[in-house]
Amino acid sequence: MSLLAINWAVVGIKAAQLILSLSILVVLHEFGHYFWAKVFKCRVDKFYLFFNPWFSIVKKKIGETEYGIGWVPLGGYVKIAGMIDESMDKEQMALPPEPYEFRSKPAWQRLIIMLGGIMVNVLLGFFIYAMMLWHWGEQYLPAQNVKYGIVADSLAQSVGLQSGDKILALDGKKVQKFEEIPLDIILNNIKTIEVIRNGNPVNISLPANLSSTIINKHLHFLGANDLRVPIQPLDSIVEVSAAHRAGFIKGDKIIAINNQPITFWDEFTNTVKQNKHQQIAVTVLRNNDTERLSLTVPAEGIVGVNMNTKGLDKIFQFDTIHYSFLQALPAGVSKGCKTLVSYVQQLKILFGGKVNISEGMSGPVGIANLFPAVWDWQAFWTLTALLSMILAIMNLLPIPALDGGHALFCIYEMITGRKPNEKFLEYAQVVGMIILLALMVFAFGNDIFRLFKK
What we know:
- Its main location: membrane.
- Helices cover 46% and strands 17% of the residues.
- By secondary structure, the protein is α+β, with helices and mostly antiparallel strands.
């Protein structure tokens, strides 16, 4: 199979996962509006997955409602009679209100209808998290089990961390899960890190602009790739690489470079990068014997052997929390609430002026790249739950044309007793649609720019 074919296969798998995930989220979100519209006896004219300008892929009318699938996979909609929405049906709005129309219902009923989709997305997120915890449990790496410490890259070194440091606490609070450290630092504006260095506690003060630096420059900070890992026998050698030409074979264990013993992968990679264009002597352990190989390091400092991160569970002791069905339900709600709070904090950072918005906003391509290159149901449901929560928060924003904008007008009417003028609502809907289209174009542009930038 050619490299091009492999890339297209990866693109197809990622796109299929994104489309399936969005289809689930959109159908259930719109069902939330549909359900409450029916409860309050509103007529629903259309229920569509994806948008259908000019034509529909599939459509069928059942009773008073036309159900269909559009050809533009950017969302979906329900058209409720007597409601000013993206359809901008001015002819219907020019007629006298009918009892079955949205505009004829009390403000509190209209508010519930508008919030119905958001409620379903939140409940769906809770449900997915609960079922995942029930089925797979929750695996994590306790910070105390990071026995070899971290690998400090240039960013970590710039704030005072060193390779081998073992992180104990953030702002005096003991770290429980290693995976939560990066997001905690970014979202909670952590000021100090306490580490164990050479057996002694050390407090490190972090710069105030660390979060914005990480986000704006797309840097990773203290993630899974920053665990210090002892050298393991080589799992594979890249063909037509410097290591392949030097005679490395699968199973070799690197033990020294230029007669200097090495223990960790970062020691090997750092030494290689420091000897670009040079020839180094690498000692390996092969079948209980030592072999001395002459390795010429190319200009890019990549020799064709890499650390295998898939075997980390054999090196570090991960913990898994198992849940019964009844235990998983409140645990899923708790995890969903943490996700909502975390995303709101990220929005505050994004729109708080500390980061470049263009660097933090992605369109469909960016979202699709979150999905793995192979079909993985655990990863799929994890991302679907996350996207469900994101969809709920984004729809709650008080922008006309979004559910939050419609809800805001209903709340205004409930407080003041005055219904906004229908002409005002029409203009607000147009302004809201322009804002949303501009954001979509901006996000698409970001995706395209990043593709060409790579």
